[in-house]
Design a protein that fits this description.
By secondary structure, the chain is mainly beta. It contains 9 helices and 44 strands. The longest helix has 18 residues, at 166-183.
Length: 658
């Protein structure tokens, strides 16, 4: 349910609330920043370059990172765009001190970064970096509503420079970013699959990667690839939130060495994102290996998983990919190490790169196909508890593609690369595999009750397409597969709790038994947008998912079905379930079913509403055998003192019979 209201201090703002039958998920934000001490001021002017907008700890923050030719004290200045006059920043523009350090010798100069905090929703901002008398050009970005639906874009390896044609790699990358953001102007994040460049400390390649101006208007969530990890330029160019740079999260166990590393997390609206340095996977070189990442993911989800509705992991090395790296020993190791923990922790989606081809896995649970009957290319998937979708991004620049390889006889679970029994040309774990040698990106739609994942063409066989221009084959028809067309699309519908599992597992009542189940798919009960009433509360209405009650017992004993609701929660914000009332009804008669009496919202009568068990329907002794469908209209009334947020609650159903 979504709630709109106003506050006394700041006028109209939107508030949202959500509830689900046998479902409990929460969501919103955490803020955390860190940095090194500001460098000492120096007299010489600084040349400012490499500016990039980054993701913050939550939707109210952005980071900005840049290079400076001189070791001077610098700032980030930001103001609502509407407050600029003739391009001039107002006197009251917010400023944030930059921190940083000297770059490694091969990069030259110094790196700086600062975090913008306390952003307001639905606001255009303009920012610049530097110091008085020596500011960079100004750039702009826009925040959107801090609650509800949004889209983000995922980009597989740009790997600028890998084709040998730096200019065309840059042009292909530029074109993909422009195509993706033009088609999705309201996308809120750009998420990296790693390998921004071919050579870790090659600043010419980094300059080409950073060339698209959209990287200064849309926040980039960086990921370390194997081509990024071998130097410090990655850490110099990207400031990431909530970052753990401890020794176990570096492949060599040495954060002070000339390598990049670390894991980080952030919450953006309803999604907890966790980004891993998958280059550190074994302990033989001194790092903590995969075990260290699993400990990190477990800790973050245990502490913050309840603050978001969805859990998305990102790392570079795809464990379920179809091409040259599918049979790599390190990926087979991760394929054994990762999936069971991800399933147990309730991860929804894993985004990966490295194999320069597109794949979408079947739902994977504990290292095996969750449902052997899931068909290749299914448009809708229902994970159930422990099901995880893994996606591999193809090249976003066209600098390099890997061709799909053939399955072998090594097995159809765990580390195996055996064939899919339903599609023998594919690996057992992949629902969709694709390689046309054209550039693509992945669009993820975050919705209240589903994730929609699309792989979208951002190019054709034509230039800029470096690998094809240099002799690689291409299989694409502009007429049938133009820029913007879909390679693949799937909707992931979430699991809503143990009670749903029971309902799904008992779709039909056995002869001579009494039981109930959800009638159809147990989707989230979305009560829409609440409306303000009488200046002191909000109201929203909806219907529960119908219950199908069946009784074929010879005893014809009485039965009853009741329910109670938990408190509504959004992270640390809450309001009482007593505010929810209902009006039960018999939708389809049978089994002697009679609707229970209505229950008023506790807001009306200062009562307990549905916070205690209340009857939905019942039948008396001697009722006829058969089945009935029970439903209820929901009536939610919320005091206007409740804070803005995306709230959810659990409705627990109980059936009793003699």
């Amino acid at each position: 349910m979504k709630l709109s209201t106003s506050t006394q201090a700041s006028g109209l703002v939107r508030r949202r609330v959500a509830t689900g039958v046998t479902a409990a998920v929460l969501g919103l934000t955490v803020a955390l920043g860190s940095g090194m001490a500001s460098p000492a001021a120096a007299a010489e002017p600084a040349t400012l370059s490499g500016i990039i907008l980054g993701v913050g700890a939550n939707e109210t923050q952005r980071t900005v990172t840049w290079y400076s030719s001189a070791d001077t004290a610098q700032k980030l200045q930001v103001a609502p765009t509407a407050e600029l006059v003739n391009g001039e920043f107002p006197a009251g523009a917010a400023t944030f001190d930059a921190t940083g350090a000297a770059n490694i010798a091969t990069s030259g100069g110094f790196n700086r970064h600062a975090t913008i905090t306390s952003l307001k929703e639905d606001t255009a901002y303009t920012y610049r970096v530097g110091s008085e008398g020596n500011w960079s050009p100004a750039y702009s970005f826009k925040t959107q509503d801090f609650e509800g639906d949004y889209d983000f874009l995922f980009f597989g390896d740009p790997q600028i420079g890998s084709s040998g044609d730096l200019a065309q790699d840059q042009a292909g990358w530029q074109d993909t970013v422009d195509v993706a953001t033009s088609a999705n102007p309201n996308a809120e994040l750009l998420v990296s699959g790693g390998d921004q460049v071919e050579t870790a400390n090659n600043e010419s390649q980094w300059n080409s990667f950073l060339a698209p101006d959209k990287l200064r208007s849309y926040p980039w969530a960086a990921t370390i690839g194997n081509h990024d990890v071998g130097g410090k330029a990655y850490e110099q160019h990207f400031s990431t939130p909530n970052t753990d740079r401890s020794a176990p999260l570096y492949s060599n166990g040495n954060p002070a060495s000339n390598t990049s590393g670390g894991d980080y997390w952030y919450i953006y609206k309803d999604v907890l994102f966790i980004d891993l340095n998958s280059n550190s996977y074994a302990t033989s070189q001194g790092g903590g290996g995969d075990a260290a990442h699993l400990a990190y993911v477990t800790d973050v989800i245990n502490k913050h998983g309840s603050e978001a509705k969805w859990k998305v992991l990102t790392y570079h090395h795809s464990i379920y990919s179809p091409a040259d790296h599918a049979k790599d020993s390190d990926n087979k190791a991760r394929r054994v190490d990762f999936p069971t923990t991800f399933s147990k922790l309730g991860v929804d989606l894993v985004l990966q790169g490295h194999d320069h081809s597109y794949s979408r896995s079947y739902l994977i649970k504990n290292g095996e196909k969750a449902d052997p009957a899931e068909k290749p290319g299914a448009a809708d998937v229902y994970p159930g508890p422990g099901g995880v979708l893994y996606v591999t991004g193809n090249s976003s620049s066209g600098s390099k593609y890997y061709d799909i390889t053939k399955p072998d006889t090594s097995g159809t679970s765990g580390a195996g690369n055996g064939a899919d029994p339903l599609n023998p040309d594919s690996y057992w774990y992949n629902s969709v595999q694709n390689q046309e040698h054209v550039r693509t990106y992945v669009k993820v739609q975050v919705r209240n009750d589903k994730l929609v994942v699309e792989n979208v063409r951002s190019g054709t066989c034509a230039a800029p397409n470096s690998a094809v221009s240099r002799g690689s084959w291409c299989n694409n028809t502009t007429t049938d597969q133009p820029v913007g067309s879909l390679v693949d699309k799937v909707s992931v519908h979430p699991y809503h709790g143990d009670s749903q599992s029971l309902a799904v597992n008992v779709p039909n009542v056995a002869p001579g038994e009494f039981g109930w189940t959800i009638d159809g798919y147990n989707g989230l009960v979305d009560l829409g947008t609440a409306q303000e009433r009488n200046g002191d509360h909000f109201e929203a209405a909806g219907k529960i998912n119908p219950l199908l009650v069946s009784d074929s017992r010879r005893s014809l004993a009485p039965w009853s079905v009741s329910a109670s609701v938990s408190d509504f929660k959004d992270a640390d914000k809450t309001f009482s379930g007593a505010n929810l009332g209902w009006s039960p009804m018999v939708l389809d008669g049978g089994a002697g079913a009679k609707a229970s009496d209505p229950v008023a919202s506790g807001y009306d009568d200062h009562g307990k509403g549905l916070s205690i068990a209340r009857g939905l329907g019942s039948a008396e002794q001697g009722h006829p055998r058969g089945s009935a469908r029970l439903g209820a209209d929901l009536d939610l009334k919320i005091p206007d003192s409740v804070q803005k947020g995306g709230y959810r609650a659990t409705l627990t159903i109980t059936a009793l019979s003699s």
